[in-house]
Specification:
heterodimer, A: alpha+beta, 8-stranded mixed sheet, 5-stranded antiparallel sheet, 20 helices, B: alpha+beta, Glutaredoxin, globular
Chain lengths: ~700, ~200
């Protein structure tokens, strides 16, 4: 073996030799430096104070855990090996801190930490020194967790003072929660929460926020801030129980602290009332009667017949919704045209009904298919795609241009199809029905919310039935008018006024296009809106070129291809601007309103602040109406300010999984939804979809 | 109209679930759909009528490796699936976390360890994890054929990172499965899970 080899062998074996060497006082890992330390200012003898401790110095960002580690993590464990008769007590945990981690909350320590234990020496102790061995296990976490362990060993001279870490021990002692002799506390169990009542906390804490740390793990929802308040010297708090609670203690030892205190106060809370059985079907914690909602009779699940009835009613109300209006005007033209022929009128009504019902069923089937495919979609989703919005804008432009007389359908379609349409007005009526549904769907009428919420949770056949009932309800007024000639005859007789009326009807169509362009602008920005408008101009040119009345065959032959080329160019220019990601997800928010997130709601509610959430979308006319009327009234805003309500807006204009999830949690599949969260509750009070000033103010006045 | 609508809206509200209340044992297990590592859609609803085990997994977590390197998790999976139980491993690690594995690598890791989970689900937005209140990897759930959650908690009774402890620990999942497969109530329906925190996205 030459010298180099010897050197290499030595270098390789040296660290492993160091490993197998007897443990010392210190263990270093990349995350912590841990050291076994002692405090024996008067040496080691019976009756003299003796403390041992594990000092853990965390690297920045790393932490270890308290005796109750919270949602994850594990408490540090110390296993002592001491001479016969010498006993070490439990860890005297310093007051912990809260360590939030995403939706989880842990209790623990960072920075420099000493975990002290006090040691009892037997009366017959006479050795020269005390040999201390410690096996310690700790879990150290940052964004990742590393379980570590260390073996430690020190020797403490019995006849000399050991006080090198006196300050450390003094600091640890100062940070230890103090038992409060005069304090008393109870924790009263209910189905889903604990009501804490504590008297005798330090007087200077009064009125300040108090943090609560239960020493028993597995009881409360750590991440949910307690809803707490002071009444004179008494501190009250409502703490939500962990839905996966594993413990049912008879006493709940806990630590309380407030900001600026080195040490908290420790107090065993007496548990009153019986714990709900673990794993027993406990009542749904959703609604807390008399708490967040006005008292209601115990709500039986909505039965199918009832749901169908409400679906029919909801469908009828749909006719009154602003976004159905343009199509209603189409229908009025239809009545006027056919009022002379009763049989035809009824047939048209039936065809319209079939069109509406089939569209609803088709939409429901599509939604169910998407639901099965795991898509987080809700009612109204069709207007969340820029392509669908563009297509609808094109459709309404065409209808408008047609009504305005720019072109005629007959001259645009091949002769055979045009005569087929003329011969079968039922096909016309059915298509009108389909169109009505496409536009009406996003405007969830008040009753649709409940029916749809139920339908989405139902097995497919029942869900389809309910959607069909909605369609039937929507078509019913039209059907009734076509069946009852008296109703139809009340309409003016056909005459030259119809041309004027037809032209007039073009304007609601164009207004609808304005709205759709605005929706698209919300989705993809001003470039996208301009692209759509450009495309509409090209489209208008094409139909004018080909379909204008009195156009000669030769002119058509020249203009037709030109129009086609123009349209193709416009499409290729517009297409890139219509991609949905063209606009960053910036939520336009006015000063008073802030973007919604479930965490913000949770935080504010936990902090004792009421929250009002406006679930809205640019394409939802009802939403915009409410926003510009009730929600912009000064008296409503003043009430919001007076009660310090956090105003959040959840904008569903584009697809958003978090908002879809929240809507389905609230039992809804569409917007608008107005939710008022009282402090400390998870389940909001839902307000009417056509929001009135009085309703909002009443709801605010009813806040606790 | 308002008087007619109010009860309905309340009805709809009553159908919702509490924002912070995650799944509870004894209650219906939250429905979910997700893509597995092969991109196939998997829904809990697909397994109505069968027992289902959910296992939260993150190969970057030492506690997960404790149960995989020792073969304990695979043995538990084998014994469960041999009895017709559906085993869904769920990875809720956010893509912006260093522990995140792309679906193909996740599948490779499972295969490399001889895992016999029926499917490994990619829950990158943490939606399933939040719905179930999954806190740690591993965190285990057992769902009965009626879709009721009958067990939630730890894989076993010894919350350590030391694989040597497995031999002397009680495997809560095996126990719960044995009881529920025999048509009995699970005697220990909830335990405290232990392990690394689930690496949810910072977005919350």
């Amino acid at each position: 073996m030459n010298r180099l080899q010897t050197l290499i062998v030595a270098l390789v074996t040296l660290p492993s030799l160091a490993w197998s060497a007897p443990p010392g006082a210190e263990v270093r890992t990349p995350q912590v430096r841990a050291e076994l330390v002692a405090q024996a200012p008067e040496g080691v003898a019976p009756g003299k104070p003796l403390m041992l401790g594990l000092l853990i110095e965390h690297q920045p960002g790393w932490h270890t855990y308290w005796k109750n580690p919270g949602d994850s993590g594990l408490p540090t464990r110390l296993t002592w090996k001491l001479p016969e008769g010498v006993t070490a007590g439990p860890i005297e945990w310093p007051t912990p801190g809260k360590l939030p981690l995403g939706p989880l909350l842990n209790y623990g320590y960072d920075g420099r930490l000493l975990l002290p234990v006090s040691v009892q020496v037997p009366a017959n102790f006479a050795a020269e020194s005390l040999d201390v061995k410690l096996s310690a296990e700790w879990l150290v976490c940052k964004d990742v967790c590393i379980p570590e362990q260390g073996e430690f060993q020190i020797q403490i001279p019995a006849r000399a003072a050991t006080a090198a870490h006196a300050q450390l021990f003094a600091d640890a002692s100062a940070a230890r929660p103090r038992p409060l002799a005069s304090a008393e506390g109870t924790a009263t169990v209910s189905a889903t929460w604990l009501d804490l009542r504590v008297t005798g906390l330090p007087a200077e804490w009064r009125g300040r926020p108090v943090a609560f740390f239960p020493e028993t793990p597995g009881v409360i929802q750590n991440a949910a801030e307690p809803q707490a308040h002071w009444e004179g010297p008494v501190w009250f708090a409502r703490v939500l129980l962990d839905p996966q609670r594993s413990e049912s203690p008879t006493s709940l030892p806990a630590v309380f602290t407030t900001s600026g205190e080195t040490a908290g106060a420790s107090l065993p809370l007496t548990v009153q009332g019986a714990w709900p059985a673990i794993g027993a079907a406990s009542p749904l914690p959703a609604v807390q009667p008399g708490e967040t909602l006005p008292p209601v009779d115990p709500a039986p699940p909505m039965g199918l017949p009832l749901a169908i009835l409400f679906a029919v009613l909801g469908g009828m109300l749909l006719n009154l919704m602003p976004c159905v209006f343009p199509v209603l005007s189409l229908k009025v033209i239809g009545f006027a045209r056919h009022s002379a022929q009763r049989g035809q009128l009824l047939a048209g009504g039936l065809a319209y009904t079939a069109g509406v019902v089939l569209s609803f069923v088709a939409l429901a089937a599509l939604m169910l298919a998407l639901r099965a495919g795991g898509e987080q979609l809700g009612w109204g989703f069709q207007l969340q795609s820029p392509w669908v919005v563009s297509a609808l804008a094109a459709l309404f432009t065409l209808i408008g241009l047609n009504l305005a007389g720019l072109f005629e359908i007959g001259s645009l379609l091949p002769d055979r199809l045009a005569t087929l349409q003329a011969r079968h007005p039922m096909v016309d009526s059915a298509l009108t029905g389909v169109l009505a549904v496409a536009v009406a769907a996003p405007c969830t009428a008040p009753l649709m919310g409940a029916s749809l919420g139920l339908a989405v949770t139902l097995p497919e056949p029942q869900a389809l039935t309910i959607f069909a009932a909605l369609g039937l309800g929507m078509a019913l007024p039209y059907l009734a008018a076509s069946a009852w000639p008296a109703l139809a005859r009340a309409l003016p007789r056909p005459g030259p006024w119809m041309v004027t009326f037809k032209g007039l009807m073009a304007f609601p169509m164009f207004a609808t296009v304005v709205w759709l362009v605005w929706v698209l602008g919300q989705q993809v920005g001003i470039d996208g809106a301009a692209a759509l408008l450009g495309m509409l101009v090209a489209l208008a040119f094409v139909v004018w070129a080909v379909g204008a009345p009195g156009r000669s065959r030769r002119t058509r032959a020249i203009l037709g291809p030109a129009g086609a080329i123009l349209l193709a160019l416009a499409l290729s220019w517009a297409a890139p601007a219509l991609r949905q990601d063209a606009l960053a997800a910036a939520v336009p928010s006015t000063e008073a309103w802030q973007p919604w997130s479930s965490e913000r709601v949770a935080e504010a509610v936990a902090a004792g602040r009421p929250v009002f959430v406006d679930f809205t979308a640019a394409w939802c006319v009802t939403c915009q109406y409410n926003k510009r009327s009730t929600l912009s009234k000064e008296e409503v805003m003043a009430d919001f300010r007076a009660r310090n309500v956090l105003l959040l807006r959840a904008d569903w204009t584009r697809r958003d999984v978090a908002i879809s999830n929240e809507l389905s949690r609230l039992g809804r599949t569409g917007v608008p939804v107005y939710a008022l969260f009282a402090p400390g509750t998870g389940q909001p009070r839902l307000l009417n979809e056509i929001l009135s000033v009085a309703e909002v103010r009443d709801a605010l006045a009813a806040l606790p | 109209m308002k008087s007619l609508l109010a009860p309905l809206i309340l009805l709809a509200a009553a159908g919702g679930t509490n924002a912070w209340a995650s799944a509870s044992v004894g209650q219906p297990a939250p429905a979910f759909s997700a893509s597995d590592t092969a991109g196939r859609a998997v829904s809990l609803a697909d397994f109505r009528g069968r027992h289902v085990v959910l296992e939260w997994v993150n190969p970057g977590c030492p506690y997960v490796r404790k149960h995989y390197d020792s073969g304990n998790m695979q043995a538990t999976q084998r014994s469960a699936t041999a009895q017709g139980v559906v085993w869904l491993a769920v990875n809720s690690t956010s893509p912006d976390h260093r522990d995140h594995l792309a679906p193909a690598r996740m599948a490779g890791w499972m295969q490399g360890h001889g895992a016999v989970a029926s499917s490994t689900l990619m829950d990158e937005d943490g939606a399933i994890g939040r719905a179930y209140g999954a806190r740690t990897t591993p965190h285990m759930y057992v769902i009965d054929p009626q879709g009721t959650l009958v067990y939630a908690g730890a894989i076993d009774s010894k919350p350590t990172a030391n694989a040597a402890d497995i031999a002397t620990a009680t495997n809560h999942v095996k126990e719960a499965l044995a009881e529920t497969l025999a048509g009995k109530a699970v005697s220990t329906p909830v335990t405290r899970p232990y392990g690394c925190s689930v690496k949810y996205g910072s977005a919350g």
